[in-house]
Structure formats: structure tokens, C-alpha cells
Amino acid sequence: MSERIVVDPVTRIEGHLRIEADFENGYITEAYSSGTGVRGIEKIVVGRDPRDIWAFVQRICGVCTTVHALASIRSVEDALDITVPRNASLIREIMNETQFVHDHVVHFYHLHALDWVDVVNALEADPEETSQIAQSISDWPKSSPGYFQGVKDKVQKLVDSGQLGIFANGYWGHEAYKLPPEVNLLAVAHYLEALDWQKNIVQIHTILGGKNPHPHYVVGGMATPIDINSDNAINAERFSHMQKLINEAFDFVEQVYIPDLLAIGSYYKDWLYGAAKPNFLSFGDFSTGDVREVEKYRMPRGAIIDGQLEDIQEVDLRDPEHVREFTDHAWYDDAEREDGDGRHPWEGKTDLNYSGPKPPFDQLDTDARYSWVKAPRYKGHAMETGPLARLMVGYASGNEEIQQVVDEALEALGVPMDALYSALGRTVARGLETRLMVRWLRDDMNALIDNIKTGDQVTFNSSKWEPNSWPDNVQGVGWMEAPRGSLGHWIEIENGKAKNYQAVVPTTWLASPKDHTGQPGPYEEALKGVPVADPEQPIEILRVIHSFDPCLACAVHLTDKEKEGTTKIRII
Ligand code: NFE
Ligand code: MG
């Protein structure tokens, strides 16, 4: 007989996610992913000046704190056919690369590592041995026995106080943890170091975008004043500070994150659960030229269906067959839908007037509607997007830089390519793309400095700023790669105002409920077949779900006051 495990809310993510999973003979047989909060940001921008919308939609999320602004201005620039100056293109790349590096490191250490690392077990570690391990895998200087003894003392104090603080509510001692105490101690030390490091790298956002979270953008370029010789602009001293931050980021990624990832991964090579369907989607991004020059993307565009790596399919965000959103199992009113077949975002609707049962509830009605997340599909397929998808599309496209980091990691771990189709593989992919991102960040900063040295200080193209220069009715789409995957914003502009606005976000693809054909979303698919040793402590569910790095604020773009509280596990 099957039982149902309920995890609500899933913690160490952004936003409100509920997972229900049917569990039989030790394995999950079926799963349901539900976004339990809705914010309706797509609706509040309708009727507004398209030049202002980036500032509203940027507030969709404070984690991927910059990406919705960029997708939004790209959608308006697409509609109005605006080309941005080279400096602005480069600054935007740098902003997004900074976001990726920050976001991925924080995800690995602070949101995901504790699914693999047993903090309390670190108390049994021998600091001498930890030091030897640290020095054998990396040149990172903080590696003395005394340093690890200090970290151990810190954890001991927390445990003795009975208040674990940032480490509270873990499943410490769970049999699914496999690391020796010394590796646990190493990882805990780097958890604390990463916490300290992450506040520095975002200074790049504050310098180029005025602040973080939510730095400034402008349709037509960037509002970044550049003058190498002025005290009131981004000058030589600021550039050299940013270069120092990038060098520190490079060292942190190469000497801490990647060695930790491979060391931890090597103990979990047998735990290769958590694959979604091998359907991978990447809109592509990080052009060395203008965003419209798709062929110049360092992260290629394409789609892979059913693991067919030799058959990369085209992705056209203007094509209604390529992106459609379904709401058959989501709490939206779609009564006016005519074709019964989902909607391309330019025809998309976000109607919150659905009159059937909605939260709060005791139990999801999974046969009916059970989420605020819509179900986007590419040519009808549920798609995995994000680091693993990007690397698979890049690898299959023959991108040598991507092939090299992937091959190196597979060799270091001694696993075949198929091993990447797993929760662990997704986590490794995220680390590998961070290696690429920090290189591109360095290259783009150098390119920006070189361009400025030629005398070009322009960051803004004002040619289409005035609405009287716009067509009466026009549509645009802005796309990009965000840390969690492919992001698109679609806009229709009529008489100078937004007539419709739709965002289809990485976590919308990933956390989607079932669609009209019953096809599950990637979270739901990935949980099937996952073993759960103790349904009262379903750490395996967290491993799989966290490997996608959920952001539900993004996915459903109200806080349910009655459901405030801590993690609740219920066996029904
Ligand atoms: Ni709120 Fe986001 C990213 C976007 S969502 S985190 O990355 O877009 O999936
Ligand atoms: Mg949307």
C-alpha cells in the first residue's frame, strides 16, 4: 500500500514549494510539485510605460536579483529594434556573469551541500587529517590543522548550546550521509568561508548597477557613468577594484568550490538518482557581440529531446509551437481558452479569478488543479533547463570549452556521461559552468576596459527613447540564461503602453505541474524511483529537489499566513 509523504514548505530554497510524493516499498512512485504562493506581477505591469517595466519585474526575485530586469529591457529593445552600445552589452554580460558566480556558489554551499554533508558528524573529525585532505586536493591557503580545529570548536559550541542556529533542523546522523568526518569538517569550514566571500563579489553589481539587490538598468543601454579619469564615475580605481574581486572569485571557484564538489561527489557516485527526462532546453546567451547574434553565444542555444544528443533542435521563441504554457493543473482561470491547447506567451493570460478550490488546503487535489506554477512546454515536451541542460546542449553542439570542462570532471570522478543524468550530475554541472562563467567574467571585464581605452565611453542609445518614435502596435521577446535556466519575457506594446506581459521563467519549466496530457514536470519526473530510507526524514527528496535550485518566487511570479511555520513532514 502506498503512503503519501508531504514536504511543505521545502526549505533552503526561495519561495513556497510543496512536494507530495507517493511512496511504496521504499521508493517514490509518483510525485506532485506545487507552488503555493502567487504574486501576479505580470498583471501589474500591464498599462505601464515599457521603459519602466524592468524595475517592476526585477522584483519578481531578489535571488536572481538582476535577471528579470535584463530580460525585460531586452524584450522592449527587441520590440523597438534598439541596438545597445558595446559598453552596455559588456556591462550587462558582466552583471549576469557576476550573478551566476554568486548564485551558484551560494546554492552549492548554503542551499544544497547539507543534503550531502553531515554537519554534526564533523565533530568526529581529526583536524590533522582534514588538513592533509585539504592540501591534497587544493592550494587554498586556509588549510592548517589549527584552522580546522577552530572550525570544529565553533561547531562544538553550537551543538553544546543546543541551538544549532544556521544548522538547525537538519537530518544529522541520517544513514544517507556517506562522507567521512574529515570531509564533513572541510565542507563546513568552506560553508562558513563562502558566506563571507559571497558578500564581496556582489560589489561588482553595486559599482556597475548602483546597488545589489536589484541594480539599475535602462532601455537602450546601461545607466552606468564611465570616465576613467573622473572621481564621479566608474574610473580606473573602480575598475581595478572589480578586477581584484574577479581574481578572488576565480581563486575561490578553482581552489575551493570545484575541489570540494569533486571530493564530495566522489563519495556519492553510487547515488545517481534524480534524473528528469533527458529533454534539455537552452535559449543560449553570453554573446561576444550583440544579444541578437545567437551564433556568437558562448553558451549555445538548442533543445535536445529524449537524450538525442546528435539531433539538436532549433529554438524559436516567437514560434507558438516552441513555447506554450498550459494551466490545466494550475489555479488559473483559463475558461476563455479557445484552442484547448495552451498559449504562446504573446497570447498568454494570467487570470487569477479561478473559482475552484485553492489554498489554504489540507491536501492537494492532484487530479484537479494543484499549483500556481503554469506548465510551459517546448513542442509539447516538458523540458529540463539550467546548468545540466546548458552543458548538454553545449557539449552536443561541439563547443570545445564546454566539452573540456565536462570531460575533465567525468575523468576526475571516474564516471560516464550518463552519470550526469542525476541530482549529483546537475550539481556537478552547476559547478562546471561556474568555472566557465568566472573566466568569461574576467574576459569581459578586460574587453570592457580595452573598449573604454579606445575613447568609447558611451553606455546609452537614446535614438528610440521617445514613445512618438515607436510603432502603434509591436511585439517583442527578451531572452537570456539565468542561473536556474532559460528565461523569457514577452511584451506587446500598444500606443506606448504594455498591452500584455508574460514571463516564462526557469523554475516555471522545472517545477511545473502535469499538463493536459498528464505529462509531469521535471521535479515530478525526477522524484520517481528515488529511494527514501526514512519517510519521516526524506532527505532524498531534498537532494533531488535542491539539485534544481528552486526559486518559486520566480516560478509563479501572498504569502499564505496560515501556513507559516517550520518544515512539516506528514505521512498520510
Ligand atoms: Ni528567483 Fe530565477 C533564476 C529566474 S528562477 S531565481 O535563476 O529567472 O528559476
Ligand atoms: Mg508567467
TrEMBL record:
InterPro entries: Ni-dep_hyd_lsu, Ni-dep_hyd_lsu_Ni_BS, NiFe-Hase_large, NiFe/NiFeSe_hydrgnase_LSU. Mg(2+) binds at residues 42, 557. Its EC number is 1.12.99.6. Residues 337-350 have a biased composition (Basic and acidic residues). GO terms for cellular component: cell envelope. PROSITE patterns: NI_HGENASE_L_1, NI_HGENASE_L_2. It comes from the Bacteria. Fe cation binds at residues 64, 554. Ni(2+) binds at residues 61, 64, 551. Keywords: Iron, Magnesium, Metal-binding, Nickel, Oxidoreductase. It is an enzyme of class 1 (oxidoreductase). Its cofactor is Ni(2+); Fe cation. Gene3D superfamilies: Cytochrome-c3 Hydrogenase, chain B. It holds the Pfam family NiFeSe_Hases. GO terms for molecular function: ferredoxin hydrogenase activity; hydrogenase (acceptor) activity; nickel cation binding. It is found in: Cell envelope. Heterodimer of a large and a small subunit. Belongs to the [NiFe]/[NiFeSe] hydrogenase large subunit family. This is Uptake hydrogenase large subunit. It comes from Salisediminibacterium beveridgei.
